[in-house]
Structure formats: structure tokens, C-alpha cells
Specification:
One of its GO terms (molecular function) is phosphoadenylyl-sulfate reductase (thioredoxin) activity. The chain has a six-stranded mixed sheet with strand order 3-2-1-4-6-5. The chain is α/β, with parallel strands linked by helices. It has a domain of about 140 residues: HUPs (Rossmann fold, 3-Layer(aba) Sandwich). Helix 2 crosses helix 3. It is built from seven helices and six strands.
Length: about 210
């Protein structure tokens, strides 16, 4: 979706305080091809529920690093079944067992950490976006997660020119807890991202 920086800024002012379903409906109506990405981390169920309430057939891109916890995998399977998600699974080209044998999970200061991140997250994500070619990308980015994300808003443009739509951008954990409770949705907090190391560190998808 082609929008100028000024148009995005004006829309972000309008969208502040607007219900997520209205933002989602606007984006789907004005875009040509929409996708939602997920890793089934805590509170991801909110964006998955909200988007599929508007369009139940939207492609849900899951880039599975292969390092999720058993709890996350069980949570994912529950949501896939419960919400009827149109899951498009993307995994690294190398198995976790192979990588564990030759590399393991490098520490943040290890030169191999960048290669590790490329293998388990960035390459599968690029492959997914190349295949689907969306112009609208729904995410659950929220203000306060990282310094970089604090510089974004409900609408932002990715480096590849895809409109990122984060309907819950201004929502707090407390507000999301109420949303999940109101819709009877489960949450899962035993989540592990091997590329981040620190909770407030970017993995590379949104920078």
C-alpha cells in the first residue's frame, strides 16, 4: 500500500484510541494482500484473534525457529485449532539438531550470532514474504517493547515498503489481559527466542 510519510503520520493521529478491529478492517479494505505474522509469544493471541475476526482466511505466517518451548508449541496448536488459523509454516533450512552439533546457540558477543539469527529467523521470514508478497503486514508490535519500537506507531513502513499495521500498539499488558479475558482467550508466558538473548533487544525483523 503506497502511503507517504505525511499520510502515515496523519492516519496514526486518527488511529490513536480507535478499536483494533476498525484499524484492521481499514487496512484490509485498502490493501491488496494482507498477512499476519506470529511466533506465538505472550499476547500474540490478541492480534491473531482480532485479525481473524475480520478475515478468517488471512495467511498466518509462522516462522518457527525450532527452539520454542514445549509450552509454546502446545499453545500454538491450541490456537491454530481454536481460531481456525490459516497457518503458513516456515522453518530454517538446517535442522535444529544439525545446528546444535556444529554451532549451538552463540552468545550475543559471538561473531556467529549474526549468522545464527539469519539462519533461524531472518532467512525463513524473507522466504515467506517473498512468496506471499504482501502490501499489508499485521504485527503485534507495542510501544515500550524496545527503543526502536518506541519510534514506530500503529502504522509504519518496513524497509521493503510493506505497510506494518500494529493495532494494539498503544495497549498495555493490563489492557491486553482484559481483552484476552473478555474473549476467553489463553495466553502463554514460557516463551524463548534464541536470537534476542535480552528481552528488549531487536531480532532484526523490524529494524
Amino acid at each position: 500500500m503506497a502511503l507517504t510519510p505525511e499520510e502515515i503520520q496523519n492516519l496514526n493521529r486518527q488511529f490513536k484510541g480507535i478499536p483494533p478491529e476498525e484499524i484492521i478492517s481499514w487496512a484490509i479494505k485498502h490493501g491488496k494482500k494482507s498477512v499476519v505474522t506470529t511466533n506465538f509469544r505472550p499476547y500474540e493471541v490478541a492480534i491473531l484473534h482480532a485479525v481473524t475476526e475480520v478475515n478468517k482466511d488471512i495467511p498466518v505466517i509462522w516462522c518457527d525457529t525450532g527452539y520454542n518451548t514445549p509450552q509454546t508449541y502446545k499453545h500454538a496448536e491450541e490456537l491454530i485449532a481454536r481460531l481456525g488459523l490459516n497457518i503458513m509454516l516456515y522453518v530454517p533450512k538446517q535442522t535444529t539438531a544439525h545446528r546444535d552439533a556444529v554451532m549451538g546457540i552463540p552468545q550475543i558477543d559471538d561473531p556467529r550470532h549474526q549468522e545464527f539469527t539469519e539462519q533461524v529467523k531472518l532467512e525463513p521470514f524473507k522466504r515467506a514474504m517473498d512468496e506471499h508478497k504482501p502490501d499489508v503486514w499485521f504485527t503485534n508490535l507495542r510501544k515500550g517493547q524496545t527503543a526502536h519500537r518506541d519510534s514506530l506507531d500503529v502504522l509504519s513502513m518496513s524497509k521493503d515498503g510493506v505497510l506494518k499495521v500494529s493495532p494494539f500498539y498503544h495497549w498495555s499488558d493490563t489492557q491486553l489481559d482484559a481483552y484476552l479475558q473478555g474473549h476467553g482467550l489463553p495466553n502463554e508466558h514460557k516463551y524463548f527466542d534464541p536470537t534476542k538473548v535480552l528481552a528488549n533487544r531487536e531480532c532484526g525483523l523490524h529494524t
